[in-house]
C-alpha cells in the first residue's frame, strides 16, 4: 500500500525518482544520506517529504536540464541527430549539442525513462570514502552507498515515477486497442528499448503462428482415419514446421535489426548494455 500511495501522489511538478524509507528511520540517517547525496552528486535536486498517511519519509529526486545534458554525455546516451548533420543516432556530446534533434526543447529532448536512467546512474555511483560508516554499517572504500543501504533495509525502495498522461495514452492506443498495430515507438520512448524489443518480438511471433495454425487445421480436417494417411500428414506437417521455423528466424533477424537501427542500439558495444556490477572490487 505504501508503494501505491506514493505512486498516486503528485506533490511536486518535477520529480523523476522517488526514494522511500521505513517509518522507523531516524533523523540522523536521513540527514546523513541527504548530506552525502548533495555533496557527492551536486547535479541532483533533492526534496524531503513526509507522507501523512503512511508516516514514511521520502526523497524526491530530479535534476536540471543542464545537469541531465552532462549526465547524458557521461553515460554516452544515444540520441537522434538532425538531418542536416547526417541523421542517425550518436552518443550525446555536450560539445556538439547543437547537432541533436529537439535539443532546444527541454520538455521533449529527454524521455522520462532517459531522465530516470541518468539519475539512477548517479545514485548508484555515489561512493563511500575510507572509514565511512552509518550506525553499524561500515562501508568499504569506493563502495556504492545507496545499493548497500537498500540491501540492508535502510532504504525501503527506489523507483521511478510514472507519467499518468502517457500511461493513459498507451492504455488507449495499446492495451485497449483491438486488431491494431502496437505503438512500438511510444513503448520504446516510455519503457526503453529492452521492453519495446520484447513486445516487438512477441507481436511478430504471435502473427507468425497464424501460418502453422491454419496449415495444421487444414491437414487435420482432410486427414483420413487410417494410419497411413495420418503418418503422411505428420511428415508433411513436420517438414512445414522446419521451413516455417527457418523463415521465421531469418525474418525476425531482419525485423530485429531494423528496430535496433531505428532505436539506436544496432552498433552499441556489448559491455554498455550489460548490467552494472556496482559491488565489484
From TrEMBL:
Single GO term (MF): chloride channel activity
Cited InterPro entries: Anoctamin, Anoctamin_TM
Matches recorded under Pfam families: Anoctamin
Membrane-topology annotation of the record: Multi-pass membrane protein
Entry's transmembrane regions: 199-222, 228-249
The keyword Transmembrane helix is annotated on this UniProt entry: yes
Subcellular location as annotated: Membrane
Entry coiled-coil feature ranges: none
First-listed, main subcellular location of the protein, grouped into a coarse class: membrane
Keywords: Membrane, Transmembrane, Transmembrane helix
Gene Ontology cellular-component terms listed: plasma membrane
Domain Anoctamin transmembrane: residue ranges: 187-281
Record-stated family: Belongs to the anoctamin family.
Name the UniProt record assigns to this protein: Anoctamin
Organism: Podilymbus podiceps (Pied-billed grebe)
Species classification: Eukaryota, Metazoa, Chordata, Craniata, Vertebrata
